[in-house]
Amino acid sequence: MKKLLLVGLVLVFALVAAAQVVITVAAGAVGTELELARIAAQLYMDENPGVTVRVLDTPDMVQDRLGLYLQFFEARSPEVDVYQIDVIWPGDLAEHFVDLYEYGAAEVVDMHFPAIVENNTVDGRLIGIPWFTDAGLLYYRTDLLEKYGLDVPQTWEELEEYARIIQQGERATNPDFWGFVWQGNAYEGLTCDALEWIAANDGGTIISPDGVITIANQNAAEAIQMAAGWVGSISPFGVLAMAEEESRAVWQAGNAAFMRNWPYAYSLGMADDSVIKDKFDVAPLPAGKSGAGAATLGGWQLAVSKYSRNPEIAADVALFLASYDMQKMRAVDASYNPTIMDLYFDEDVLAATPFFGTLYDVFINAVARPSTISSPNYNQVSTLFFQAVHSVLQGRTDAVSALEELALDLEDLTGFEAIFDF
Ligand code: GLC
């Protein structure tokens, strides 16, 4: 009897202890991200009553979010167990995360795009399980192109021209109307946008994959100078302070003809309460000199902190959030691109977001930022880059001078050699 009581007590204690496991996930809150993460967390809790999954809201802008994460890492804080990490971060942040191969990822990793898995693998360790991928897209108003007898712009020159025509026409009735909105604030989003202009113009990828600083070239300078010409003409001056959500706000209010943004904006624009519902579509970004458009590769992974008290359960949560069913839900309900290849052939996914099928090539050919080659200094590389671009957009300097200076700064920072090709 005593023995039984003891066993019973031990069991009760074990259950209480298990019930106390709290896993905190630091997640993004751009668009519907936070809501989606909370729904998935609830589903996990329904299946695992002993675990509480807390979803922590983090800043929208990449460098702000990184700053917060670095504070946790600095303190070796166990407060956050799972981090949503950008596709550019595995190299810079690898030391703070466990190897997910040691926690069951080997069984699921083959479902995901191999290039992303490779990106997330540092010295053979899987730093993050891919959660969703991203690529820059051109959003355009189908009703307005029709109204003005225009086609989807194929080149940046056409975009500029069409944006001007539509803006001029629409201003007659809507003084708030603009031709083109994008991400011009001085942060990672500008690195993405500017890389698209430059790569499409045959201007390279800032630092080549084999470690040459290539950014100081004529094609890159032309591309940035072109964008500087948009500010205050087809794009509001305020674009220089816009991140994804600020540009989406203008676009979704019906106040822009074109927008550059990531896929998440599709589902929100198509929502029942959206004034542009069924009045827009998406296309590949326009081409420059290279003859083809370029989309920057974005996307987010789930990584488990080395400082977590429960890495095993944390990894289980991460793998659940990134599982087939959860990625499917995110794709269908909110147009977040899966990293699981089969979902691009899933009927429900394609019905909800047809462009996952039609623009498949854009997603698999997206241009990577030079994060692997420049790790662990990628964030500094990008910061120097977007600051240089931002100063040209503000009209404080010209593109050639800015890129020349940038290349020298990048030499100092990385130790790589720069080529100058003006
Ligand atoms: C998106 C992308 C991410 C990128 C960020 C820039 O969230 O997925 O990779 O760094 O935008 O703002």
Q: Would you give an account of this structure?
A:
The chain has 2 domains: 2-134 and 298-364, Periplasmic binding protein-like II (D-Maltodextrin-Binding Protein, domain 2), CATH 3.40.190; 137-296 and 371-418, 3-Layer(aba) Sandwich (D-Maltodextrin-Binding Protein, domain 2). Helix 18 packs antiparallel against helix 19 (399-414). The model has no long low-confidence stretch (mean pLDDT 96). A 5-stranded mixed beta sheet has the order 2-1-3-12-6. Strands 8-10-7-11 form a 4-stranded mixed beta sheet. It has a two-stranded antiparallel sheet with strand order 4-5. The chain has 422 residues and is α/β, with parallel strands linked by helices. It is built from 19 helices and 13 strands.
Question: Looking at the chains present, what oligomeric state does this protein adopt?
Answer: single chain
User: Biggest sheet: strands, sense, closure?
Assistant: 5 strands, mixed
In CATH's first tier, which class of the largest domain applies?
A: Alpha Beta
Termini Cα gap: 89 Å
> If you compute it from the alpha carbons, what radius of gyration comes out, rounded to the nearest whole angstrom?
23 Å
- β-strand amount: 5-15%
Low-confidence stretches: none
Average pLDDT confidence is 96
The CATH fourth-level homologous superfamily of the largest domain:
Periplasmic binding protein-like II
Q: Please give the CATH architecture of the largest domain.
A: 3-Layer(aba) Sandwich
Number of strands: 13
CATH topology tier name of the largest domain: D-Maltodextrin-Binding Protein, domain 2
Shape: globular
The helicity comes to 40-55%
User: Count of helices?
Assistant: 19
Number of domains: 2
Widest sheet, order of strands: 2-1-3-12-6
Q: List the bound ligands.
A: alpha-D-glucopyranose
Structural class: alpha/beta
